[in-house]
Amino acid sequence: MRWRVEITVKEPLIIGSGQKSRNVQMTSEMIPGSVWRGSLSERILLALGLKNYDGCGRVKEKPPADFIDVFNGGMRFGFLYLVPPEKGISGETIPLPLTARTCKDSPGFAGEGHGVWDLLLWKLRKKLNEQVTGIGGCRYGSCGGRLERIRGYAWTSMDNDGSYQKVKIPKRLFHRTALDRNLETASDGYLYTMEALVPTSGKEEMVFAGDIWGSEEQYSKLEKLLEEFFISNDLGFEVRIGTGKSRGFGRGYFKIKEASEKKPLEDRFNDFQSALGFDDEFLYFSITLRSPTLVCDDLGVPVTNISRDVLARYLSVVPAGLEMIVEASTLEWGSYGGWSPAWGLPKPMVAALNPGSTLVYKVPKREREPAIEFLGLLEEKGLGEYCSAGWGSVVVCDPFHLIFDICRESDNR
């Protein structure tokens, strides 16, 4: 099952990305599942007296069974993304697909710029030898300007009514001087800078939202742990998130609520077939990544050609005849790291597929039912490694690709 997570942050927030530029600590624009999972679990271990204070987070003895089932079991702690303050969590913030394009002269969605267009279905039609025209320029009026990739995040309503809005990530630099531990004064030559996420002008808080997956029993255990070990008020349970917690960063409030229902998977699958308009012996579908995804072969080597054999390593149900259409897929690599309080060391940098990457597949029509079951399992369990920390979150047949299809006659205003 899926529940909605909301963290209201009252102070500037620094999420260590593992990447530094000289003496500048950069921040991530999203809260990984491992970060807020670690913040919750650390607080509980401290309260139980099970965490050492020797610089490393080694646990003295085995935690309670409920703690292990929640934080080291089958629950998936998803990535959290910034929600526009004027929108609330009635919708969701998504990483923009790599196939999205906008006008270079006036970028942005309708109302902000000339509009947004998506290339996924265009690339698939071209691969299937359908007679399609070139991409051309901006469709807004008589603009005709160059189309280029639009990056970042967008907010959309849960019912996918076609309303999208670009999400702006406000940041600020904080300059600090390191202290000499012996003299308790400023250390000479130790000026450093931290980049932080801050509320937009005129606002006192930021809201990050995402999902958590697990069983009813696991959710009940998590709820019990929160009520027992966390201080709460109307905003939720008080937590500290990210880097610089002892310096006033990352104070916020955490709550879980029932998740709004998304458009059913089978409806999205059928809509994709109708929008593609290509009738042969195969069914087609897309998988859009919502968080970093690392998929490895039998030798542990990261791969981009995610074939049926590779998928079978992670999922128990994979339809026969499943094939990846590489020419219609759009993938991008990124580097991911961070800081591990448990080790007291930086996490190793990992190369993984970036959020927004799109995978396109085909499957024989006779395998329709196994394909629907496979896709449902994929959205529930995730794809690849580190799924419990939010990696590998996907959405099947994302309505974004249909709403902004560049081949539609509408100008997508």
Write the layout of secondary structure elements.
Layout: E1 2-9, E2 16-21, E3 24-27, H1 33-48, H2 65-71, E4 76-77, E5 81-83, E6 91-95, E7 100-103, E8 116-118, H3 120-127, E9 147-149, E10 153-157, E11 164-167, E12 171-179, E13 186-197, E14 206-213, H4 216-229, E15 232-233, E16 236-240, E17 251-258, H5 265-276, E18 282-289, H6 308-311, E19 323-324, E20 333-336, E21 339-340, E22 345-346, E23 350-353, E24 358-364, H7 368-381, E25 394-396, H8 399-403
Parallel strand pairs: 3-13
Antiparallel strand pairs: 1-14, 1-17, 2-3, 4-14, 5-14, 6-10, 7-8, 7-9, 10-11, 12-13, 15-16, 16-17, 18-24, 18-25, 19-24, 20-23, 21-22
Helix pairs in contact: 2-4
List keywords for this structure.
alpha+beta; 413 residues; four-stranded mixed beta sheet; seven-stranded antiparallel beta sheet
In a nutshell, what does this entry contain?
This protein is of the alpha+beta class and 413 residues long. The chain has helices at 33-48, 65-71, 120-127, 216-229, 265-276, 308-311, 368-381, 399-403; strands at 2-9, 16-21, 24-27, 76-77, 81-83, 91-95, 100-103, 116-118, 147-149, 153-157, 164-167, 171-179, 186-197, 206-213, 232-233, 236-240, 251-258, 282-289, 323-324, 333-336, 339-340, 345-346, 350-353, 358-364, 394-396.
